[in-house]
# Entry
Amino acid sequence: MTRAELARMIDHSVLKPEATEGEIRAGAEVVGSWHIGFYCLQPWWIKTAAKALARTDACVVGVVGFPHGCDRSEVKARAAAIAAGDGAGEIDMVMNLGALKSGEAAAVAADIEAVVRAVPDLPVKLILETAALTDAEKRLACRLACDAGARFVKTSTGFHSSGGATVDDVRLLRAAVGPEFGVKASGGIRSLADAQAMIGAGANRLGTSASAAILGAIEAAESAGS
# Structure
């Protein structure tokens, strides 16, 4: 895989609640200068990022129900619609973890469907928070995501105390959704080795705040091999 190919798989993330406008603009500069495919950030900053990246082909990704997933479905749906209006080209929504773990699969499905209906032209990724789920719950969440019209499942918010993406979880998600559905690994991906391991396990999108370091490492490897 080339540096350019890897860059197109990355969702560069600036999701800290304390991130300043300067940090958001610096993140947009990283995305533009490295030709990264996607920029994932909090709803408040979508307009800022969309304007900063207007002359690039990068897609702005807005998070919904982040990071806990406990908002009511109508709130998530409205937030997704507002994000789309502000310039988001994709939506990463957090699944209602408590509902899933309570066995309320129909409620989780309805939650996903509400967001998908609110932004019919945008891909929706469902953030599962895999560190908080059993393997059976992960597989159920994958089935619900597929049936409800989402386009990706995503491992983690990166904010859960139990951890982020693991190779085993990415492999499980890929097996659960099949070869055509999207799998985004996110949370704790900080090096080129991490990125390569997640891709090897089946991820076709990577969420990371260490994009420049990862892409710098593959660029150095390419230069050394030339």
